[in-house]
Write a structure and sequence with these properties.
seven-stranded mixed β-sheet
Length: 314
């Protein structure tokens, strides 16, 4: 029997991409509502409770309301909004955290990680757990993201206004240091303090590059200890350690566009390090992670239907 899937908010960027990705799978039945019933609460509630997995691709407040519509003990809710990432009773959907794969396999409430948070957590969490970076460290991060992360309005701004200022360079935002991903970045790395985060929208559709600069004195054992930690942490799964992913001395934030895996690298010297995570903000940073979480919750191969580069394996 095929598993039934419903996407609540399927007209948004994330919802459309998930629908597109799942549409080609013969092990799933996608529950769809007629256009006139897409916002009807009763119809949505029936669809959510009839599904084996319901993706919530909605703004935070709407996602909280939609989650409350689920009364079925059987339905797995995967919320792609920020609403439940630090909430009690919800499992954070980052399978690479210690023990998280087991938790996800039995959870009925899964909160999909944020894109900037995914790169930061992948870089920092193993180092804090291993004692290489202190939990009291005050870190910084800058993150380059494709404009698709801003949703339909931002996509339209970039694709319909060619030649204007937005196409001449990156645009930094969240300047007041109140980015909505900060709480999960603290909670799931084990840090005591939120990092100084500098997110930057760049003029390409998708792709992401999260960088955490680190003085070697703040990494116990230096660059080799950091590399060894990543090798141990990411032996299998959709995150892999790559000892050198440079292209002629450059790193492109679009390098893994269209893929669902993530590459972790370390650069620098005996004094200063650069920890770098390359992935797709719509892949491992959103839709790919959501599909991976669905696979785990349904007891399937975690990598089923994912678009992975060489070396990534579940």
């Amino acid at each position: 029997m095929k598993n039934k899937v419903f996407i609540d908010g399927g007209a948004g960027t994330t919802g459309l991409r998930i629908h597109e990705r799942l549409g080609g799978r013969d092990d799933l039945d996608i529950i769809t509502l007629p256009e006139e019933l897409r916002h009807n609460v009763k119809s949505r509630q029936e669809a959510i409770n009839a599904a084996d997995v319901a993706f919530l691709c909605l703004p935070d407040a709407a996602a909280i309301e939609a989650a409350a519509l689920c009364t079925s003990r059987h339905t797995v809710i995967i919320d792609t909004s920020t609403a439940h990432r630090c909430a009690e009773g919800w499992t954070y959907g980052f399978a690479e955290l210690p023990g998280q794969m087991r938790r996800l396999s039995t959870s009925r409430r899964i909160a999909n990680p944020g894109c900037h948070a995914s790169g930061f957590i992948a870089l920092v969490a193993p180092l804090v757990a291993a004692g290489i970076v202190k939990a009291t460290a005050r870190l910084a991060a800058f993150s380059l993201t494709g404009y698709s992360g801003g949703g339909k309005k931002m996509i339209a701004d970039y694709e319909e206004n060619r030649g204007e200022l937005i196409h001449l360079g990156g645009r930094q935002y969240a300047l007041g240091q109140s980015h909505k991903h900060l709480p999960e970045m603290v909670k799931y790395t084990g840090l005591k303090y939120a990092p100084c985060l500098s997110p930057v929208v760049v003029p390409h559709f998708s792709g992401m590059e999260v960088t955490v600069p680190l003085f070697a004195k703040d990494a116990k054992g230096g660059i080799e200890a950091v590399k060894d930690c990543y090798r141990r942490a990411y032996r299998k799964g959709t995150i892999k350690f790559v000892d050198d992913s440079q292209d002629g001395g450059f790193l492109s934030s679009a390098a893994l566009s269209g893929r669902d895996d993530m590459e972790i690298s370390v650069y620098g010297n005996k004094d200063r390090l650069m920890l770098v995570a390359l992935f797709d903000n719509l892949g491992k940073g959103a839709c790919g992670a959501a599909i991976e979480n669905m696979n785990i919750a349904l007891g399937l191969d975690p990598c089923l239907g994912l678009k992975l580069g060489g070396g990534a394996q579940c």
